[in-house]
Structure formats: C-alpha cells, structure tokens
Amino acid sequence: LKLQGGNTLQWLLILLMLCPPRGLLLLTVLVLLEGSVLPLGAASSPDISHHANSDKHQVADVGHNATKKPFPVLAVEYDRVQIPFEISLWVLLASLMKLGFHLIPRLSSIVPESCLLIVVGLLVGGLIKLAGEEVPPVLDSRLFFLCLLPPIILDAGYFLPIRPFMENLGTILMFAVVGTLWNAFFIGGVLYGVAQIQPANPSDLHQLDLLPCLLFGSIISAVDPVAVLAVFEEIHINELLHILVFGESLLNDAVTVVLYHLFEEYAGVGTVTVLDGLLGVISFLVVALGGVLVGAIYGILAAFTSRFTSHTRVIEPLFVFVYSYMAYLSAEIFHLSGIMALIACGAVMRPYVEANISHKSHTTIKYFLKMWSSVSETLIFIFLGVATVDGPHAWNWTFVTVTVILCLVARVIGVVGLTYVINKFRIVKLTTKDQFIIAYGGLRGAIAFSLGFLLNQDHFPMRKMFLTAIITVIFFTVFVQGMTIKPLVELLAVKKKQEAKRSINEEIHTQFLDHLLTGIEDICGHYGHHHWKDKLNRFNKKYVKKCLIAGERSKEPQLIAFYHKMEMKQAIELVESGGGVKLPSAVPSTVSMQNIQPKKPPPVKAAERALPQLPKGREEEIRKILRSNLQRTRQRLRSYNRHTLVADPYEDGFGDLLLKKQKMIELEKKMNNYLTVPAAPPDSPTMCRARLASDPQAYSVKPTSDRVPTIQVDLASPQSPDSVNLLDEFRRAEQPRGEAGPDQGLMMKPASAQSGPNKSREDDESRDQQQKLMRCLSDPGPSADEDEDEPFLP
C-alpha cells in the first residue's frame, strides 16, 4: 500500500481506531516511512513555494467562479506541521523505547541500553530503506552539536562531584591531554605506515597522506562522554574510576577540537613548519582556558542574576538553562571548547544559584536536566543506527581492521605508561584492575561520527572510508566492550559504588581533616592543594559570597548550610514515605537546629562572674592581636629541614635561646673563678676522701704505732658515701685490736707516752696527726640532703 498526500493521516487514524494498543507505535513508524520526510536540520517554516503557486493560481483565475468546498473549515495540510510533528514522533519513539527497555529487567541486565537503542535505529533505518524512501540525515552535525549534545554536558557539569574531580584533576589531565595526544599520533602514524605497505599493488590506501591520517587519528582517539555515561552508570563502578574515565572524556574535548582544526587546516595547505607546531600548542591553551573562562563568566552572571529573583520564582530555572546555552554558543563562535565552557558554567553557578533559588526551582532544574539529557542520549544512539543504514560507506578490510586493533593497543599502552608515571605522585595508587577498567572503558561515540561527518568531500576524498571505520569502532566499543565490561567488573571483583547518605558527622570530620591538613602544610612550609583550597575558600567567603548570594545566607557557615539541605531532604523523604501523617503537628521535628546549636545559658550576675567582663573595644583589640600573631606563621615560615634549620630572629623562642646562652657564659665565668683557687695539698682531707672514693685499694696508709688509739672508719663507696651499717660497727668493735682485716679501713691510734730524745719529734707528729684527724672529722663533706641525680648545669 502506497500512502500519498492527504490520505496518509486518514489511513493512520483508521489504524489507530482499529487497534488502539498498537496504534501509537504504528503511527510513529508509518509517518517515519512517509515519502515527504525532510531533513531535521532544515528550517521548520511553512511551504513557501506552495503558497506562491497558490497565489499565482488565484491571480490567473480572477474572474472565474471558485469551487465551493463542502466543509471549508476542515482540510489536511500536513506540510505546515511536518517538521515539528516528525521531531515529536522521534522523541516519542525514543521515550517508548527507553520505557520498554526498563520494563524487561532480564534484558536490561544483559545488554546495555545504548546497544538496544542502536539496534532500534538500525531497524527504523532498514524499514525506511525497504519502503523505498530516502533516509533523512537525522544525525546532522549542526543538529548534534547545537541541540543534542549541550543537555548531556550541562547535566554532567551542573551535577559534577567537585571534590573528587578536583582531587584527581592532575590524573584526569594526564589521561585527557597526554593520553589523547599519544592515541592520535600513534594511530595516525601507524595507519600511514600501513597504507604505504606493498607499493607494487596499488590500492586506495596508497592515496592517504600523513596529515589526513593524523586527522583521522585525532577524531577516533577521543573518549566519548555520552557513551561513557551510558555504560558506566549501569555497572555502578566506584567513584574514583568513574570520575577518572568520565573526567577524561569531558576534558579531552579541547585536545580533539584543536587537533581537528589544525590537521584540517594543514591538510588543505600541505605543509607544516615548526612555527605551526608552536602555534598549535598555544592554540590548545587558548581553546581550553578560553572555554573555561567563558563558562566561568556566564556562571557568575547566572549566579548574580539569581540574587534578584526572590519575587519571581517562576523564571529561576530559565536563567540556568539560558545562561548555560549562551556559554556553549559563545564558545563555539570563537572555536573554543564548548564542552569545557558548559562544565565550567555549571560548576561555577551551582553553589550560588542553589543558595538563592527556592526548593521548587531546584527540583525543576534537577528533573528537567535529567529528562532533557536522557532524551538527547536516547536520540543520539537511535540516530547512530539510522545513519549507519543511510551510509554512504566505503568498506576496506585492511583499514577498518587495523583501526580497531590500533585503538585497543594505543589505549592499553597509553594507560599503562601514564599510570606508571602517575603512581609515583599519587597517595592512593591505581592498581592493575583499575588500569584495566580505565583502558577497557575508553568508548567512542557520536562525537567522533559528527566530526567525521563534517569533513569536506573535496578536500578529503577518503571521507567515506573514514566514516565507515569510525562507525565500526563505535559499534565495537559500544557492543563488545560495553556488553562485556559488567561481567569483567564482577569477575575481577572491582570495588563498586556504595550508595551512602551523607551525614552531619561525616561533614564535620571532612572539614576537620581539611583544616588539619591545611595547618600541617602551613607548619611544614609546603604550599599544597589544601593550602590553596583554604585560600580560595577564604576569598570566596570574604568577597564572592557577599556579591552573589542574597540576604543572610551569604554569611551562613558551610556546615549550617549543609544541615539545612539535609533537614529539607529528610523532611521530603518523610512526607513521601507517609510518615509525616502519623506525626502530630504539635510535636517538634526530631532533626532540629537545637541538636547542633546549644541553647544560650541564662545571664550570669555580675557578682558571680569568675572573670570581669571586658569592654567591646578591649575584646576586639585582643582578637586583633591574636589574629595577627596566629596568621604570622604562614607569612614567616618557609620550610623545615632538620639539617638546615636556622634560628629565626623574629621567632618568639629566640629570646629564650639568648637567655640560656647568657646563663651558660656566666656559669663558665664562675667555674673559671673556682678553678683559679690554689689546689689542696695531696694529704688534705678532701684529697684523701677523693682517693678513697675513686680507688680505696691503691691508697697507702702510714704505719701506726700501738700507742695511738684507733678509730675504725668504714670505707665509703662511690655509690653510697654516707651509708653506715651499725651492726657491722658493733661486731668489729668486739674483735681484738690486732686482728683487723685488710679491708677494715684506715686505723688511727692516739699517741702514748715515750721516753728518750725522740719524744718531742713524736709529739710533733702526733700533734700533726690529731690536727689532720680533727680537720677530717670537722669537714662535713657532701650533704645528705642534696640530690645525687641533680644536674650540674641549670
């Protein structure tokens, strides 16, 4: 049956009435099979030629009687609504396919959603071909880059987890910049070498030059964010691997854009100089940083505009969407990175916009972005299938097979090599399993196809072969790698994402660790990312929040703001679960500000104050002094090294060091004075006691006569010079005087009367001995009250 003209809608309405359950799907397919399908990228204006012809016909028939219609009101004019009607049918088909996919849980657990959507696109394109109609170029580059891609990137940038993204920014940039450059040059260079093999057998590959090969390598080397989102959200991989692969797919857009435009320009000219290479590096910096700057400017404008929307809450979500889309279009005007502009715009505006807008506006933004991005993603995969059927294709087994193999090999080598370098600087190392998932998750998608579709057939005669190879790589990565990555994750026991609700306790400990690490970096003099993050937070709190956030919320601490968000979320969950109906209205909420803000104590009387109340001026002065002194550490301290530590004259402990040094100098002077006193004679009591303490056995005693009365003195040991055992003293006293052992110590006897000429000499000697004895007994020696362990130096 061939449907023509106005009979189309009549047949469709008849089918819809005859079989209501299947009528809607048949309506969609049959309209898509209609022969008057126009490209979706065309303008949706009425048929001007039809009106022009009708006007001429009316002019020619002036004076003739017009035929009267039986029903002048009713008419079939499908041409007027063809474009919006077909767009609505495509969106409806995508939504029905997505709905049917999730109604079959067994199918969704085996096959990824993106694979089924591509299959649906292949079926729709095949039906259009079988009907003998021309397949519309649904995946036009203008349609893709201006309508389908921005919602997906805006959703990813607006809800981007900032903390893990910034903590792993160095690793992401290494994979996005160095990894993409490696893939592009490796794939392009090896393909050029393969094309030059067997010059005796001429083929189409011999027409390839180096620059077109490098251009193809730059197109096929970039990881696609749409494909990564579609696959990684289904396997629920852990947050680290997800942010590494998805962050790489977002940030490599700048490298892809620069390489694409550079090689496209150089391929047309045919020559490349060293200056061109330097300008290419500068172009990369301009494209990347320019895109970020444009997005940040529009994000600040969106946040500043949301400050004044308290009286018109209805248009709050509109500013978020319009400013974001304007950022993307402004970046595309100057060939900057539109993807990085959208990411920067969403990440910059979100904290300030959410502080200004109402909760209903926040819910609207969230669900509209999710819906818009989901529909765009579904349409992209369906259009990929339709475009595959449409063609045109130029199949070359050698080129396609080598391209697929090189994509896998270059990805593995790049990930392993870069990870070896990255792990030397990372605290949390990337394991072998992580490297495998990162390499295996490098999926290609519609961005590569759209860039290849943009190539000019006149400048690149191998465009059809390029498109065929690109579609083959996309199908291989999406079908083979996308379908097998989930079983491999379970087989390797890779850590998956744990759905854990954030709590006040976790937020408190997170902020505590941030402050602790910032303080440690300040003490060590190492200005790491914690230090700069603290600087940025202080600047944001002191200046930016006051300009972009309205009311008292600009002064609200981060912990209290997080608490308000958690309280609102808990209240909504309580109402949705039906628990709020059981709670009486008089009972206060269990989650209240009283849990984290203690009640104010009653005022204390003046008589009961332990400390006098300070006046406001004095208190502010004390705070200023403490603040200035506490912050001086960061300004003064450079670095710490125990080998090169030099005393700082501005440090507080430097005065104590000077005082200690001065005391040591004074003590040395006193010791010098003591040492200048004449030394005691060898037989003085002090020297005798010193010899006894050092070596009792080497001390020789003069022979004594029996007439001298003896006094037994126990030898003093160095360990306890003042200890005396009374029992030993009495036991030794009972022994005969002549039986004293060799260890009984020094024996001193009084002199007896003698006759003869030597009496005076003996009297003199005995007098000298008595004087020595009395001097020895009168000298107290070291005091028993002194502490033996007391140090000599203060």
From TrEMBL:
<dbReference type="InterPro" id="IPR018422">
    <property type="entry name" value="Cation/H_exchanger_CPA1"/>
</dbReference>
<keyword id="KW-0564">Palmitate</keyword>
<dbReference type="InterPro" id="IPR004709">
    <property type="entry name" value="NaH_exchanger"/>
</dbReference>
<keyword id="KW-0915">Sodium</keyword>
<feature type="transmembrane region" description="Helical">
    <location>
        <begin position="12"/>
        <end position="33"/>
    </location>
</feature>
<feature type="compositionally biased region" description="Basic and acidic residues">
    <location>
        <begin position="759"/>
        <end position="770"/>
    </location>
</feature>
<dbReference type="GO" id="GO:0051453">
    <property type="term" value="P:regulation of intracellular pH"/>
</dbReference>
<comment type="similarity">
    <text>Belongs to the monovalent cation:proton antiporter 1 (CPA1) transporter (TC 2.A.36) family.</text>
</comment>
<dbReference type="GO" id="GO:0016323">
    <property type="term" value="C:basolateral plasma membrane"/>
</dbReference>
<keyword id="KW-0739">Sodium transport</keyword>
<feature type="compositionally biased region" description="Acidic residues">
    <location>
        <begin position="784"/>
        <end position="794"/>
    </location>
</feature>
<feature type="transmembrane region" description="Helical">
    <location>
        <begin position="143"/>
        <end position="160"/>
    </location>
</feature>
<dbReference type="Pfam" id="PF00999">
    <property type="entry name" value="Na_H_Exchanger"/>
</dbReference>
<keyword id="KW-0050">Antiport</keyword>
<dbReference type="Pfam" id="PF16644">
    <property type="entry name" value="NEXCaM_BD"/>
</dbReference>
<dbReference type="InterPro" id="IPR001970">
    <property type="entry name" value="NHE-1-like"/>
</dbReference>
<keyword id="KW-0832">Ubl conjugation</keyword>
<feature type="transmembrane region" description="Helical">
    <location>
        <begin position="172"/>
        <end position="194"/>
    </location>
</feature>
<dbReference type="InterPro" id="IPR032103">
    <property type="entry name" value="NHE_CaM-bd"/>
</dbReference>
<protein>
    <recommendedName>
        <fullName>Sodium/hydrogen exchanger</fullName>
    </recommendedName>
</protein>
<feature type="transmembrane region" description="Helical">
    <location>
        <begin position="466"/>
        <end position="489"/>
    </location>
</feature>
<keyword id="KW-1133">Transmembrane helix</keyword>
<keyword id="KW-0812">Transmembrane</keyword>
<feature type="transmembrane region" description="Helical">
    <location>
        <begin position="399"/>
        <end position="423"/>
    </location>
</feature>
<keyword id="KW-0597">Phosphoprotein</keyword>
<feature type="transmembrane region" description="Helical">
    <location>
        <begin position="367"/>
        <end position="387"/>
    </location>
</feature>
<feature type="transmembrane region" description="Helical">
    <location>
        <begin position="435"/>
        <end position="454"/>
    </location>
</feature>
<keyword id="KW-0325">Glycoprotein</keyword>
<keyword id="KW-0449">Lipoprotein</keyword>
<keyword id="KW-0406">Ion transport</keyword>
<keyword id="KW-0472">Membrane</keyword>
<dbReference type="GO" id="GO:0015385">
    <property type="term" value="F:sodium:proton antiporter activity"/>
</dbReference>
<feature type="transmembrane region" description="Helical">
    <location>
        <begin position="278"/>
        <end position="302"/>
    </location>
</feature>
<feature type="domain" description="Cation/H+ exchanger transmembrane">
    <location>
        <begin position="92"/>
        <end position="490"/>
    </location>
</feature>
<keyword id="KW-0813">Transport</keyword>
<dbReference type="GO" id="GO:0015386">
    <property type="term" value="F:potassium:proton antiporter activity"/>
</dbReference>
<keyword id="KW-0112">Calmodulin-binding</keyword>
<feature type="transmembrane region" description="Helical">
    <location>
        <begin position="111"/>
        <end position="131"/>
    </location>
</feature>
<dbReference type="InterPro" id="IPR006153">
    <property type="entry name" value="Cation/H_exchanger_TM"/>
</dbReference>
<keyword id="KW-1003">Cell membrane</keyword>
<feature type="region of interest" description="Disordered">
    <location>
        <begin position="735"/>
        <end position="794"/>
    </location>
</feature>
<feature type="domain" description="Sodium/hydrogen exchanger regulatory region">
    <location>
        <begin position="586"/>
        <end position="677"/>
    </location>
</feature>
